[in-house]
Give the backbone structure.
Amino acid sequence: MVETAARPACFPSCNVLIIEDRADVRESFGMLLSLIGCHVETAADGVEGVRKALAGHPNIAFVDIGLPLLDGMKVAEQIRASLGRKIFLVACTAYDERYGSERSRSGQFDAWLVKPVAFQDMLYWLNAACMSVN
């Protein structure tokens, strides 16, 4: 039998929001997270992302920084203003790590991933966010 990545029992109770303007990235990560039992919502721009976060109260949101209508930093700012630390926010960006570490010091994001994002990295932060659910 082939071993697969550990799947914590909390994944089925974990609500995930993916805010990403590239349809292929948004849909592929959404599909992968659904396959491991997550409830997944997606948004194609920052305005829709904020609306879905405030309406759905996800446990974790993966937020692209270069979003149309409202950039990822503003998305995080608005979500934090309403939900505080009740949501785990992960920035996903093609900007280099120095940019990420400098910007993440603002306190809006709990983690920062540089694209292309490895699915294992998403699972790591998903596990961290879901542990507070159960």
The chain has one domain: 22-130. The chain has five helices and five strands. Confidence is low (pLDDT under 50) at residues 6-10. The first strand starts at residue 15 and ends at 19.
